[in-house]
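Late entry, written up from scratch paper. The run itself happened at the end of the previous shift, but nothing got recorded in the book at the time, so transcribing now.
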Amino acid sequence: MTLRTSNVEKLRSDDFDVLIVGGGINGAVSAASLAGRGVRVALIDKGDFAGGVSSNSSNLAWGGIKYLESGELLLVNKLCKSRNRLMHAYPSTVKEVRFLTTIQKGFRFWPFFVYLGSLLYWVIGRFETRAPRYLPPAAIERTEPVIDTRNASGGLEYSDCYLYDNDARFVFNFVRKSLNYGGIAANYVESVASHHDGKRWLTQARDVVSGDTFSISSKVVINACGPEVDAYNARVAQHTRYRHLFSKGIHLIVDRVTDNKRVLAFFASDGRLFFMIPMGPKTCIGTTDTQEDSPAVSVTDADRQFVLDNVNAMTDLDPPLTQADVIAERVGVRPLAVKGEGSDADWVQLSRKHVVEVNEATRHVSIFGGKLTDCLNVGDEIAQWVERLGVAVPEKDNLWYGEPGADLRAEFMLQAKLMQLDALTAASSSEPLSERFWRRYGESAFGLLERIREDKSCVELLIENAEYTRCEIELAARREMIVKLEDFMRRRSKIEQVVRKEVIADAPGLREACEILFGDEADERLREYLA
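Output as recorded:
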């Protein structure tokens, strides 16, 4: 029996304090926060964990510098505190990165005025990052020759944070954390109906894999469906003051355009922020900001051309980027929380702040909006609300998030050093394998060392340039609820985002990876993925 099938059986048979519907960042941190505090919690998602918005972000954990322009100082203060909290809690994952922003002639603010804004941002951020600096055009050219400075009037360099691995991996680690604390989670389980009988919620669920239906009993239901919060509330007859507007954002991933590991920031042709973000050996470029009526979106030719036109206009790439250079694409909608029924809000000016709305009579909670940077605040707020709704929270002061302590990390690094782990992969990796193992798996990485001691071939890469070893795929098969090959290739890892699909399809080790993940179903899952 797999971890997922075992959890589905528990969903059928157990009673829960809280059922969370939706396994994106809001649902994942809610599950980790509640389970870590001793609440009996279940988490389901009709697809894979982080299958929507939470796997299509800019991979940035930033304090919201752009909200200074709209005067939202309290929001910037809150986001900077949240960013700093993530930096301290996840030092291997949430890392400081320099942003080099170029201001073009004719921009709505003088470059030095923007620089003064970055100083204010640094102060609001409690000086937790390196200080900003002002750069005239000649200094920009020296610092980053790839930037076209012919129309630049100046710029600045400041710091924020980004995720070293992908956003979906970060989200899944919160799901994994909830499991470690006794929570029950299952992907590909859909909520098809739910009603409150006066005391409890009875949610009719369908196992998407088997087709079986069953009922989940809980005292509280939390709607963490991201962009589909409104649709879910309509199905379960929950009327809320807030709702969502949708803003589509896309990113294109290309081969690395500069060896300097900084984010290049510009203002696109329509005045909106535009980034070139390091992603290991690749660069992630975007984003757009297009209002949509539905969360079901895709990348259009116009989207691609907008990104390519802007990056080529702002850089000295030779030759310029074309659609043939695009390795992978990311697309999703930002769910923006608005109050009321009107549709005349300026979605470009709307912030990504989250709103928790609660129906205390039925003990139903809806989470609107939000962003990765603010995720720990969401977890804490949800725990407070669940207690207010009458659910016992026995371990309310437990630290439910963060990497394991420094002593445990030092012990892992010592063991890895003594077995010469990093020497085994020095020629095929962009960073020490010990660092990568610890960042991705924390204390579970000790099991990887033991597996490699048993069989050194487990350290081999099955897919060239993918930076995932055989023993990691074995671990994923046991602990990460991989139902489809895409779950691993696109979300538990970022292989699909940094290796071209045709290269993946031709990789000699792809079939072996499928055998490890799916056993007798390997051929079926491989055909499904390649189709």
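The longest helix spans residues 73-89.
(Scratch paper discarded after transcription.)
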